[in-house]
Amino acid sequence: LELYGAKNRKLNGWKNLNDDRSPSGVDILPGEKTAALRANRPGQSYGMMYKAVNLDMDRFSILKMDVESVTHHWYLIMTHPSLPQGFARVQPDTNLTGTFLYDLADITGLQGVKDVRLQVGVSTNEQAPSALGETMTFKEISFLAPSQLPTGAKLLKKKDLKFQQKVQAVAAKPVKTLRMPEAAVVRPQGARAVAVAPVAGATAGKELL
Fold it and tell me: What is the C-alpha to C-alpha distance for residues 56 and 58, in angstroms, rounded to an integer?
């Protein structure tokens, strides 16, 4: 059941308006082989599109999401009135890319035929005041039967769901080498010269002959 992919590039039924007709915070950008979401609301830390689906949860219990790129974070949410608080986080905010396979039966607990909504969104997931301009590009969104699961593929379950991100390498900063000052020689008038220790609290200097 392909919502978007090689056999269906039209994005029919996907919406970026809330039920009250207010903007949901993204532009939907169709492409030849991919589609993208771009956050468009200043002062809003997320934006999403959604699609209502009449889904046989027993037959199509796996969600496939293929993400090509993301500038910040993306997420997936499924909504249904019987879920706790009315929704389940299928994928918490993440900046990882690639192909993801979700066990919806385990994650949501839903069974039988259900009218659900699938939300696909972009976010900042931090104290940034706005996700404006952040994008994510995807290749496929599909519901699969267990028999369609590729051999050896990892199926993500509820215990696997968490905020995830690829940690970016930080360039090492140059370290300035500090040199200890050389001992100063003090020659009071009419006295023998004494070497003064450069560090406070060091052992008294040695007399010079």
Answer: 5
The number of beta carbons lying within 10 Å of the beta carbon of residue 14 is: 19
- Hey, how many other C-beta atoms are within 10 angstroms of the C-beta on 29? 13
What is the C-alpha to C-alpha distance for residues 179 and 167, in angstroms, rounded to an integer?
35
109-114 contacts at long range (C-beta below 8 A, 24 or more positions apart): 109/83, 110/57, 110/80, 110/82, 110/83, 111/57, 111/58, 112/56, 112/57, 112/58, 113/54, 113/55, 113/56, 113/57, 114/54, 114/55, 114/57, 114/80, 114/82
Enumerate the β-bridge partners of residue 120.
Answer: 49, 76
43-100 pLDDT tens trace:
889 999 999 999 999 999 999 999 999 999 999 999 999 999 999 999 999 999 999 9
Residues in contact with 128: Cβ distance below 8 Å, sequence separation at least 6, in sequence order: 45
Q: Could you read off the pLDDT of 103-129 as tens digits, one per residue?
A: 999 999 999 999 999 999 999 866 667
Long-range contacts of 9-15, Cβ-Cβ distance < 8 Å, separation of 24 or more: 9/33, 9/35, 11/35, 13/51, 13/52, 14/49, 14/50, 14/51, 15/49, 15/50, 15/51
Torsion 140-143-147-152 (CA) sign? positive
